[in-house]
Amino acid sequence: MSLLSIDRDLTRDSYYVATAPRLEAYAPLQEHLSADVAIVGAGLAGLSAAIELAQTGRKVVVLEAGLVGGGASGRNGGQAIHGLACDQSEIESQLGLADAKRVWAMSLEALDILQQRCAEHSIDADWQPGFLSLATNEKKAAELRQWQQRMAEVYDYPLQWISPQDIGAWIASPRFTAGVHDPRSGHLHPLKYCLGLAAAAQKLGVRLCEQSAVTRIDEGEGQVLTLHTASGQLRAQQVLLAGNVYLPEVAPQLAPQLGARIMPVGTYIVCSEAMDAARCQALIPSRSAVCDTNFILDYFRPTADHRLLYGGRVSYSTMSPRSVKDSMHRNLLRSFPQLSDLGMQFAWGGFVDITMNRAPDFGRLGRARNIYYLQGFSGHGLALTGLAGRVAAEAMQGDSERFDVFAKLRHQPFPGGKLFRMPALVLGMLYYRLKDML
Length: 438
Known about the structure:
There is one protein chain. The protein has 14 helices and 17 strands. The chain is an alpha/beta fold. A hairpin with a 6-residue loop joins β12 and β13. α3 runs parallel beside α7. The radius of gyration is 21 Å and the shape is globular.
């Protein structure tokens, strides 16, 4: 079974789908079209690029294999956080401190883009500022404190330190020892945001085609590219592949180049029944999004309608747990045992694409180097995808300076080849799971 098919099954019981009705359906591609730019994937990265390009007068067509926001863009944890999935030390080791600071600054710009687009296009996505990064023991607290101090000294990004004496004022949980608070990061309803971007793109003249999986891309004479779907064709001068974990399926001939550098990882979320507003407020008084600092982390946040949304369990084998709701409920109760009387109303999951070093993988393909791709957000893409769409659009219009900073990051294929790389990753994650317990 394909990842797309598994994903559709996993998202049927999604809180986001239940609370963000689709007011618009976009017809499949059923003809031969031409455009300046073809974008594969109607998630946050593809739609962001489409908006940027349409605002400069480019003719843009977006081809989506499923529904707008049907992938990770519309079912993630809803946390818009500074930085990348990897630590800044990874970026420093590859690019040097000067470019690492540029990457960090762009990750902050990504947060600004998100709020600017909500304001400009009147998207009500339940934005709530605030993010807590919390340590689960004294050792991890010391590491977090060291990181917090370095970010202030080297990156000029001060974060509020929360001492063990003060942690109880920030979260009503026995699990956490200390933490940091970032008022600039925050959380929102990702599917509302994604559907809002699609509506904005359409108003700007972008053609959106759902249920239009790309089966082949042909390179013609000069820079002409032809994208084939089951019922149509699209010719364009430039192509952006923004299908994330699904790219090896929707563009099979590119899988040897792209698929080897990412691994599909299943991630799962539950959302509780609605509770009294005061009870919800007491759990996280600042109403911030929360992540622990473990390698295999838990993440959670209150919703606008006073529920607790809790994610964290992952699968590195593409095999989903038998009962997502039960297993994730147990995880939630480790953090909030006082919620044992509260039922879980929603449970869903899906795949994200991770790279070996957790850094994003951007680049170009094709004889004319006019096929751009964005992948490898590694579960940290809600804000960064908007920045990625912007820098890809800049590169397509001749200014590739910022895109090339990301493109310089080196990525290795997962070890073990097609047959053994998944078992190797499962064993590696067992090591990190044990390490998180220390």
